[in-house]
């Protein structure tokens, strides 16, 4: 993600909400979204590892051992950070397994979201990206097809990870005692299956991102003037109009453009002024894609300086 963002940090593209054109962003801004998702996943996995680092040894069946052992010394020898204080809890606790499956499920869901987005972006209708041949397959029937099978399988396996997580929690919810019950042997299969599938998914997705080709021309072709509607509303707000009114005014501008079959940045000044006399010649400066991204210079924004700061922060996190 960092390498891809660094290479295409300021390549402009449309941003979407509800899969509708929203505001202009850049590829660097888009792809770093997933860096931060996975950075949180790492934190959750580290927490799961800490939770698993409490030793049950010496708890016996449920009431503790009758032999004079030093549980803390044994735990230290085996590499655990601590011991579980209550022997009854120790034999029944599977929170560490739940924590691992929860962290893994979120990781899988994040990769599923990325997969879905890249499947859409690689379609002929978008053509924003092209998958490397190593991570796509041909059709069994149609010679022209290039199918994003790796992404589809990653998306599908997210459901499997979620099923493992929900299945384990369902086992726990009805246990009749605070000690051991044989149901708990069912913790192994979802735990190992989730781990095995993550070990399949992660290298493949790393390869997909490392080899993906982006198409700046196709992205630029979708940078239509309606993406600047929010900037137009902000322009009116800076001239003293409350945003709730500016929102409606710009809505009328957009509708006028639709009626005249013209982009909003091509509407004549007299048309704009029939809607609001706050529109003056300086509005043309607002209706520009590159200045629109540069205006968003706060932390996390789309300006070049903000993106460079975010990239540096991501590199520091990785280090």
Could you write a compact summary of the structure shown?
This protein has 319 residues and is mainly alpha-helical. The protein contains 14 helices and 6 strands.
Total of DSSP H or I helical runs spanning 4+ residues? 14
Rg of Cα set: 27 Å
How do the strands line up in the largest sheet?
1-2
Which sheet architecture does the biggest sheet show?
2 strands, antiparallel
Strand content: 5-15%
Low-confidence stretches: none
Shape: elongated
Total E-strand runs: 6
Give, in order, the helices and strands: HEEHEHEHHEHHEHHHHHHH
Ends: how far apart? 14 Å
Broad structural category:
mainly alpha
> Could you tell me the mean pLDDT?
95
Helix content: 55-70%
What would you say this structure looks like, in words?
It is elongated, with a radius of gyration of 27 Å. It has 14 helices and 6 strands. It is mostly helical. The longest helix is centred in the middle third of the chain and has 27 residues. Helix 2 runs antiparallel to helix 5, helix 2 runs parallel beside helix 14 and helix 5 packs parallel to helix 7. A two-stranded antiparallel ribbon has the order 1-2.
Topology:
Blueprint: H1 2-7, E1 12-17, E2 20-26, H2 27-52, E3 54-55, H3 71-77, E4 82-83, H4 87-92, H5 95-121, E5 129-130, H6 149-173, H7 188-211, E6 213-214, H8 216-221, H9 229-238, H10 243-260, H11 269-275, H12 283-286, H13 289-295, H14 304-318
């Amino acid at each position: 993600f960092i390498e891809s963002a660094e290479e295409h940090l300021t390549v402009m593209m449309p941003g979407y909400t509800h899969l509708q054109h929203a505001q202009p962003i850049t590829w660097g801004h888009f792809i770093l979204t997933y860096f931060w998702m996975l950075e949180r996943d790492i934190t959750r996995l580290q927490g799961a590892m800490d939770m698993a680092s409490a030793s049950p040894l010496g708890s016996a069946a449920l009431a503790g051992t009758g032999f004079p052992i030093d549980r803390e010394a044994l735990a230290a020898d085996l590499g655990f950070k601590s011991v579980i204080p209550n022997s009854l809890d120790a034999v029944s606790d599977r929170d560490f397994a739940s924590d691992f499956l929860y962290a893994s499920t979120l990781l899988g869901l994040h990769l599923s979201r990325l997969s879905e987005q890249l499947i859409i972006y690689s379609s002929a209708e978008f053509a924003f990206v092209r998958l490397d041949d190593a991570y796509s397959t041909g059709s069994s029937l149609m010679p022209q097809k290039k199918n994003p099978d790796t992404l589809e399988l990653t998306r599908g396996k997210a459901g499997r990870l979620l099923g493992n997580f929900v299945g384990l929690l369902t086992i726990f919810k009805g246990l009749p005692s605070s000690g051991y019950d044989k149901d708990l042997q069912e913790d192994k299969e979802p735990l190992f299956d989730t781990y095995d599938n993550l070990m399949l998914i992660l290298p493949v997705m790393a390869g997909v991102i490392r080899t993906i080709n982006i198409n700046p021309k196709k992205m630029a072709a979708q940078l239509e003037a309606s993406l600047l509607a929010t900037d137009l509303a902000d322009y009116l707000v800076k001239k003293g109009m409350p945003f709730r009114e500016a929102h409606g005014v710009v809505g009328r501008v957009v509708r006028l453009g639709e009626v005249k079959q013209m982009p909003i940045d091509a509407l004549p000044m007299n048309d704009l002024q029939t809607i609001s006399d706050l529109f003056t010649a300086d509005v043309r400066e607002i209706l520009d894609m590159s200045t629109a991204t540069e205006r968003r210079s706060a932390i996390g924004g789309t300006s070049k300086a903000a993106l460079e700061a975010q990239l540096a922060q991501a590199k520091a996190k990785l280090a």
